[in-house]
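Sample intake sheet
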Amino acid sequence: MFLHYGIAVIGGLAAALFLLAFYVFRKNMYAAAEKGLSVALALLSAFVYFCDYDALSRLFAGESLSGAFCGVSAGFICLWLTAAGGIFLLLYPFFAEKTVWAQPLIALPLAAYALDAAFLNDFIAAFCGHGAGEWCYRSILIAAQTGLGFGYSLFALVTRAGRLRGTFCVRTLFAAVGMLVCCLPHYTFQLIFDPRRYTAFVKPFGALHLVYVLPAAVIAAALWAGLRKRDEAEKRAVLLYYALAGLYGYVLVQKMPLFRAESISVLPLHLCNLMMYLSPLCVAFNLKKLYSFVYYFGILGALVALCTPIFAQEPYTGTVFYYTTVHYFRHHYAALCVPVAAVATGLFPRPRLKDFPVAAIIFTAYFAVVLVCDVVLVNFDAKVDFFFLNYSFVAEKLGALGAFLRKFVFTLKGGGLNFVFYPLYQAACYVAALAFGLASGAVYSLLAKLRRAVKRRSAQHSG
């Protein structure tokens, strides 16, 4: 119990003293020190949340757990607010001077880490699955994260207090609400509604499916309306926050436990899962060539996934309030809305058809990597089926044609492993994906031309 609080106090003092040293003695390097501390804190948080299962997720998955869970609600709230505040703290030193209205939001991570400190034992118990008197490497990291985050955000608030006067506005309030909504954990509804009672299944093209698909259009429209007249820094900051919130929600459910065989099948090599990592990279570092791949293949993949949901075969998966159902749709919202909003708001220029060869080359490299991973890694984890190249899930949807394509099998053996190829089926998947990507690009170009024509017609009538 006292060990965790001691680590938190040491972390808070270390963060404050580190920043104070630069603020007093090397003020010209203070901005770089803040950025370095933000990135280090983000990496620490990513390791805590991503690299092993957490008790809170397993509790909502319905597994029987040992340990003290009287503080589940407190742990849940801490996790939620820490995510919202932690992502903001990562972006804060990079955008604080460019988005003055957002500077008062430094109070959010300060409040979040203060709450973590107040309920540190409950937070650790709800996340690590043991009582306050026990400890493990993750409980130590959570305590360190709490102290570092609190010390950093408190020091940033104190040093900027004089500049915050008059900066709070309606946009700040909307941003705070948006940040909290973006980071709401996927098992929120399950905390309120018991999935054993609410067992309605989200069937493709049914009423519940429509309810889950519509938010994608609402999010894209809201991002466009809120950002289209803002400067580049604001567009990048908001889209990056939403992209990172989507990535956080994805990894909170899609764990990759270290040194375990089951980590292999959850590698982010499915197209939409990969987009959760590529979208924030493109937005953060302005990677326009990589963005063309996201634009031509990511948007289409996310749209297809939203329209034809695929749920794992687990109890309650696919029911209306179950956390994996919410997870499936919400992470596809981010995969779809970030690239769409980036082009719609003008942050990225709309890729033209002449940019498609670059996207096709990147897709070819991706496909080659996925094919090799599928053929090799299935020997270690039978669930491996990246891009649906190993098993017949997609082929079954094609009926006789799919069965025909899967008939051609080529097997190699070596080192005690079997390497099974379906050359005709896998080649067909590659060609079909390229064709769909090219067709989507043509549709995007046509829609852009129609939009320009409508604007010209409106201008002529108004003139």
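Comment: DSSP finds 18 helices and two strands in the chain. The longest strand covers residues 410-414.
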